[in-house]
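ARCHIVE CARD
SHELF: 3
SLOT: left
DATA:
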Amino acid sequence: MKFFISVAFIKLSGITPLLMILKELEKKGIPGKIITTDYQLFTEPKALDKLASLKNISLKIYCCDSPKDGFHTKGYIFKKEEIYRIIVGSSNMTSSALTTNREWNTKIVSTEQGEYTHNVVEEFDQLWNSEQVLPFEEFIERYTDTYTRNKVIQKTERIKRVRQKFQSLEV
């Protein structure tokens, strides 16, 4: 048994409902690989830290070199013996995507010889081995700094907009 996940966005709220299952997989020694991205700086570093703390999970990040270089995959691949169960659709690893949003996902059960399964597994392997993908240990410090700076800038801009609204009301 093993699993592979490729999602654009991961939030702590999306991991929380899965933690018992992920810890059970860790306890059983079932390996997993997870790829996410720095695209739009949406993935939470705390969520990545939580995933990286699980000994059975290898975690990598796809580094987007420019805003045009998007990464928006959402695929969950589970392999048991020769059978693959693949879920591909619109669900990121966020609480709303996994619990309340209207998301469209398709589940396929197949052997690796199936054309679709072969293509999905091959695409995952290509992403995993891409030069644009870095292991957790190589990216987390830089990503956390960039993520935190971006959040401060966003908060500062929100405060500035609120002040401008209040100032316009005073006139």
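SLOT: right
DATA:
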Amino acid sequence: MISVTNSDKGSFTMKFSTRDRYALRLMVELANRPNDLIPLKDISDKQRISLKYLEQIVPLLNKTGMLSTTRGYQGGYRLAKAPSECTVGEILETTEGSLAPVSCLEHTPNPCERCSACDTLPVWEGLNRVIMDYLDGITIQTILDQKHELEEKHRLAAEEILNSVKGPCKL
């Protein structure tokens, strides 16, 4: 569940639930091994997420067609779509439901009786648009690409350090 808090100091806090974060980690883990059927136990061990927790998340993702499941001895899970087709927004909406910052934006058309007279509605609509544009603009492939770029930067930095330590070799 997303927790949205307005404190008395005027700050705004939006926190995603553990289920949301774990669902995203599950999807990234599956995308890392696209040709394999991965048992949930393997994901649980590698990601250090409770197997019972994953067992609650998988049916949600499976129901929306994001996962492909094979049962049995050689069974497991894999992405049902390409990583470039799975957005963070779609995953979070699957596990969370609406990501709207206020309840009156959870349904279309807006059911709020004050909708036409609400002076602050454009603020919430704008925030909702920014949130959804951001989350829908990030795919699992984006996350994988960022991870590979970071790994390459670390590799190059380590190589540079090693080369500077070695210095010219004199025999």
